[in-house]
Amino acid sequence: MKKTIILILATLIAATGYEALAQTGNFSSSTGEKNEIKLNPFNKDKGDDRSLFADVEAWYDSSSMTVTVEGCELKDTFIYIMSPDGLVLAQTSHYFGITPETCTIEVPSLPGKYWLVIDSPALYAEGPFLIN
């Protein structure tokens, strides 16, 4: 019974945080063309559902040459920009708590296909994006 109540409260808190953020429009900067990066989440531990509450989204902003990652409940998270041959071209880390937060990372200036990799104790996700 306690687990059910905690689950319901956590869901309500997460939903309220996203709604408040959506109303203020603070997802990312308002300049340039933003393209959502389609992320594919993976469960690293077969026995645990690591993505029960964790959530992550990302956008590439062509005018500022940055990728913005928005997430919550990811905890200590490592974010990488990788080349198609697996070289790490940029990296950063950020702590994502229970309220939605954003982290920005600069992308390479050379045109091509790159991969965004997000690795945290709660979730692993990756997705390709194109720089023209």
List the helices and strands and how they pair.
Layout: H1 2-24, E1 34-36, E2 40-42, E3 55-61, E4 66-72, E5 75-82, E6 88-96, E7 101-106, E8 112-119, E9 124-131
Antiparallel strand pairs: 1-3, 2-9, 3-4, 4-7, 5-6, 5-8, 8-9
Question: What features would you describe in this structure?
Answer:
The structure is a single chain. The protein has 1 helix and 9 strands. It is of the alpha+beta class and 132 residues long. The protein starts with a helix and ends with a strand.
Keywords for this entry:
5-stranded antiparallel beta sheet; globular; 132 residues; Immunoglobulin-like; alpha+beta; single chain
Give, in spatial order, the strands making up the sheet with the most strands: 2-9-8-5-6
Termini gap: 53 Å
How many distinct beta strands? 9
Helical fraction? 10-25%
Shape: globular
Largest sheet: 5 strands, antiparallel
| Low-confidence parts | 14-31
The CATH level-2 architecture is identified as: Sandwich
- Mean pLDDT over the full residue set: 78
How much of the residues is beta strand, in percent?
35-45%
Radius of gyration: 16 Å
Q: Give the number of helices.
A: 1
Sequence of secondary-structure elements: HEEEEEEEEE
Question: What structural class should be given to the helix and strand makeup?
Answer: alpha+beta
CATH topology: Immunoglobulin-like
CATH class: Mainly Beta
Summed up, the domain count is 1
